[in-house]
Amino acid sequence: MDQECIQFVPFSQYDWTFARQGWLPWNPTAFCLIASVCAVAYWMSIELLLLVYITFKRHTGIYFWSIIITTLGIILQTTGYILKSFENSWPVVLVVIICKVGWVANVTGFSIVLWSRLHLVVRNPRILKWLLVIILIDGLVCHTPVVVFEFGLMTKHHDTYYRPMQIMERIQQTVFTLQECAMSCLYIYHTRKFLKIGYPMQTRKVIGLLLLVQLLVIALDAVLTLFDYTDKFTLKCTLHPLVYAIKLKLEFIVLNQLQSLVKKGLTPGLGAAPNPAEESFKHASPSLSPSPSASPRVTTPQDLEGQKQRQAPRFETGFVTKAGRTDVLEVGEPSSSESMTDSNESVGEDMGRRARDSDQTLMGDRGSEEHDLRNMVGTADDLGVEREDDMERQYLGRWSGAQR
C-alpha cells in the first residue's frame, strides 16, 4: 500500500494546498470532515432531484433543465473528488474528467438558473441577451484554463502548473461570485419595481426574503473565496458541491414564495392578473354594492345596446395590457348603477395611468396583448408555447385555456 495513504498527519499540519499530490494523508478528523460534507452534498442533491420532479408541472424549459443539470453536476463533482482523493486505482484522466465536468455543470448551470429566473421579471430582451452572452464568455474564459491546468497538475510536470493554477483558481472564483451576485441583485431590483406598481404592501415582505437569501449566498461564496486566497484548495473543493446544493435549496425557497404569491393573487406580474374593475367593485362603498336580498334583473335588448365595451387594464411584468373582456350582464346577474360604472372606469383609468408612468409602455393591439399574456402565464397541457425561453413561466402562472 502507498506509504502516503497510511502516513498520519496532525490536523493542524494538514496540507490543503495544490502542492500535495496523490492520496490524502491519514487523519481521522480530516477524513470524517470530508466524508460528512460529501454525504450531505449527495443527500441534498438527491432531494433536489425529487423536489424538481414534484414541484414543476412540466418537465421541460430552460429553468427546469438548468436546475437538473446543476444538481447532476454537484453529484459528478463530489464523485470525482472522492475518487481523486481516496481511490488510486481509477485512471487519472477519467477521474479528472468526472470532477471537472461536474464542476462546469454546477457553476455555469447555476448561473443559467439565475438567468432563466430573470425572465419572470425582466421584459427587456436586450438585457437578457447580454447577460446570457456574459455567462457564456465567462464560462469559456474561466473554465478552460482551470481544466487544462488541472490535467497538468496530475502529470509529472506538477510544479510547472502549480502557480498558474493557483492564480487562475482565484480569478475564476472571484468572477463567478461577482456574476451571480450581479444577477441576483438585478432580480431583486426588477421584482421590487413591478411589485410596487399594483401591490406596494407586499413589496417589503418579498424583497426582505430575497435580500436574506442573497446575503446567505454571498456569505457562502465569501467562504469559498476565502479558502482560495488562503491556499486551502482541498478544503474548498470539499465544500464546493455542498455550497451549490445549498444555493439550489435557497432557490426553491424563492420559488415557493413566488408560487404562494401567485396562488393568493398578490403578484400581478407572475400569475393571472385580477381585473381592477372587479376589485374596485368588491371594495366599493355599501351604497354602491348590490344588496344580497335584491332580486336579479333580466337585461333587455335596449340595455345591451346602451352598454359600452369596457377594457379594464391588467398589470403584467412591466407593461399594461387590456383585459379583453366585456362587462356585459348576463341573464340573472344583478345590474349595477351608473355611479358604479363611473367608479369602475375611474379606477381603471387611474391604475392604467400609474403603470403608464412607471413603464411608459401601453400595449394597444389585442392580438399582441394575448400573445404576451400567453408567454407570461404559460398554456394548458394540450397547447403549445411559441417561445421556449418563457416556458418556465408556466410553473409560477395560472392558465385557464377553457375560458378563452
From TrEMBL:
<feature type="transmembrane region" description="Helical">
    <location>
        <begin position="33"/>
        <end position="56"/>
    </location>
</feature>
<feature type="transmembrane region" description="Helical">
    <location>
        <begin position="89"/>
        <end position="115"/>
    </location>
</feature>
<feature type="transmembrane region" description="Helical">
    <location>
        <begin position="127"/>
        <end position="151"/>
    </location>
</feature>
<feature type="compositionally biased region" description="Basic and acidic residues">
    <location>
        <begin position="350"/>
        <end position="359"/>
    </location>
</feature>
<protein>
    <recommendedName>
        <fullName>DUF7703 domain-containing protein</fullName>
    </recommendedName>
</protein>
<dbReference type="Pfam" id="PF24802">
    <property type="entry name" value="DUF7703"/>
</dbReference>
<keyword id="KW-0812">Transmembrane</keyword>
<dbReference type="InterPro" id="IPR056120">
    <property type="entry name" value="DUF7703"/>
</dbReference>
<feature type="transmembrane region" description="Helical">
    <location>
        <begin position="63"/>
        <end position="83"/>
    </location>
</feature>
<feature type="transmembrane region" description="Helical">
    <location>
        <begin position="209"/>
        <end position="227"/>
    </location>
</feature>
<feature type="compositionally biased region" description="Low complexity">
    <location>
        <begin position="333"/>
        <end position="346"/>
    </location>
</feature>
<feature type="domain" description="DUF7703">
    <location>
        <begin position="32"/>
        <end position="263"/>
    </location>
</feature>
<feature type="region of interest" description="Disordered">
    <location>
        <begin position="273"/>
        <end position="404"/>
    </location>
</feature>
<keyword id="KW-1133">Transmembrane helix</keyword>
<feature type="compositionally biased region" description="Low complexity">
    <location>
        <begin position="284"/>
        <end position="296"/>
    </location>
</feature>
<keyword id="KW-0472">Membrane</keyword>
<feature type="compositionally biased region" description="Basic and acidic residues">
    <location>
        <begin position="384"/>
        <end position="395"/>
    </location>
</feature>
